[in-house]
Amino acid sequence: MLSRFLISLSFAAFLFVGCQNSSSTDGDSSKADTETSAQANVDETDDKASPWQAKKRNFSPENELEAEIIRLQDSLDRANYEDRLDIESMESAIAKMKEHGLLHTNHPRSSAYLLRAGDYAQGLRNFEEAIEILGIILEKYPDSHEYIDALYYTGYIYDRQKKDYKNAVKYYERFLRELPTDDLAPQVQAHLNRVQTIIENEKNDQ
Asked: 45-52: long-range contacts (C-beta < 8 A, 24 or more apart)?
């Protein structure tokens, strides 16, 4: 399954079902036309229930780029259901989600798309790209819920995947400084203690 290639299920933002933010509407007829066109492209087979689409989304794509993201996500959901890895769609989804996050900073789902893109990049073992994507969340979405996960997983990637303990300490300490009461704080403190012990032991071995 696709989940075999991801660090944890919690790292994947559940973007496409149960979203609390409905699409905003205004009097702009061009936006309405874009949404209608995008929805038609994505949901043209909504009347045919697909086994890999167990729940309906309760929002419509707000732009063509988001419609493409949803199309790619559907392809990946289908691949996951069929127990195969669709690397091409994953790479395309990463690029589109990253682009969306950079272009649409006021969009209610942009930070969640970025977190999912970081998840996919990790699954493909593109750790530098994952760190770059998480860094966009840290820079442009400091008030989002995904900020917490992005800060945690940046330290985690440096720690567990890259063995870059100096940067792992940097992000773990930043997490504890900024989010001392978060539920993840005890786990981050344990990671920090372990990494600091590794660094100390390496110094003693020199």
From this structure: 50/78, 51/81, 52/77, 52/78, 52/80, 52/81, 52/82
Structure tokens, 164: 């870059």
* pLDDT score of 56: 57
Q: Residue 129 contacts by C-beta under 8 Å, 6 or more apart in sequence? A: 94, 121
Helix (H, G, I), strand (E, B) or coil at 159: helix
Give the C-alpha separation, 73 to 65, whole Å.
12
Count, residues in the chain: 206
Exposure of 133 in the CB half-sphere (CA atoms within 13 A): 31
Q: Note the helical H segments in the chain.
A: 29-42, 64-81, 87-103, 110-123, 127-140, 146-156, 165-178, 185-205
50: pLDDT confidence band, cut at 50, 70 and 90? very low
pTM of the model: 0.75
Q: Is 125 left (phi over 0), alpha (psi -120 to 50) or beta?
A: left
Q: What is the DSSP letter of 3?
A: G
